[in-house]
J domain-containing protein
Amino acid sequence: MADTNGASSSKGKEIENNVEDFEKILSREAAAFQRDLEVDRILKAFKLNPYDVLDLDFDASDADIKKKYRQLSLFIHPDKTPHPRAPDAFDLLKKAESELSDKEKRLDIDSTILFARTEVLKSHSIPTSTPDSDPRIAYLKPSLKEQVRIKTKELLIDEELRRRRAFKLNLANEGLEAKRKEEEVAVKKRKAEEDARWEDNRDKRVEGWRSFQSAPRKRRRKGRKFWAETSSSNFAAVEAAAGGKISMLTHLYMASVYMYIGNTAIEGIVWYI
């Protein structure tokens, strides 16, 4: 009889242990399932609104924000969940908590949310100072909270688009400025090269002029020689030097030469009359 009772007791304990093990397995699976759900929720949250990522109302206190961040970061930590995108969700939590811990950034976000609330109330012809407990707000469908969330999303998207456009415009302006500076450098470089070539050819030019001066020249006829600066069409200079009209001069002969004044060469012509 004793053996029978002992066997029954042992079997009962075994069944009880199996039930406990089964409950533990179910609990672990349920926890893993909940972790996966939370990871998916964070990934689907509106990234520009840190309150959405942390699943908090915008009037949450600093203590509420830190507490919620600790809970969620531990709950979906990559070391505790096999979800392939758990690291991404974890990074989003850190970013959201960091933004709400920054007073200036949080003030900007809160201002946008308050403006969204004002716009929603105006759209329903409800005074903007009306408290949330007012029946007119309580009976709104969708709820005021949901409508404010949607409006906030629209405003934040518009703001982000403006920011990106301004960023692209700034990059374009910087590119134009960089191109202008490159062109200035190229112009200076070309001028320096031209100046260097001019200096390199100085001796050749001087030697050419000396050769021209010393070379014997045949004159077609005797007459006066006149210098006309800049071009062969400078008839006024020739007329002034000749003391009369070119039309009255005969047997003109001209030669294009260079006159040097210091380091500057002036092109001109010599008229032989």
